[in-house]
Amino acid sequence: MKKIIGIFMMVGLLALAACASPVAKEIERYVNEDLKPLADMEDEVIAEYDSVIGDNHTDDYETYTHIDEVVLPKYRDFIDKLEAIKLETPEVREVHETYISAANKQFNAFGKILSALEEGDFAIIEEANEMLEEARRGMRDYQAQLESLAKENGVELVDEEEE
């Protein structure tokens, strides 16, 4: 699973401050001040999850314990911080809500994985994987919405990896 914020963490917003719209100014603040500090937090949680699934899976007990004691609490903290972001413009708020929704879907999928491990039910694992795919689609939708809104408002988003 790839990092979510980090994939599209944008810096170097090029909006002319004097004539930037309120939406443009908020996009710049949102990306550079609100999201940037959360990128490392999200990367860490996803790395923790990845450390016990797929090729890194050693046994169900280890996976269950790690998700329950490490991944879920850290991801809940991440979502709490994500939900605490205060936005003024409806346009940016709407885009941010897409992100919150996808993050919550991913959190719930992690919880469903715990249920599957408790019950030893592979059908529940399949449901959790479908939820994770929905969350990934939500993250892609969020990224596309943010990029579109930035473009509409004359803000150029530059991926930090390109700098």
From TrEMBL:
Keywords: Coiled coil, Signal. It comes from the Bacteria. Residues 1-20 form the signal peptide. Residues 125-152 form a coiled coil. This is Lipoprotein. It comes from Paracerasibacillus soli.
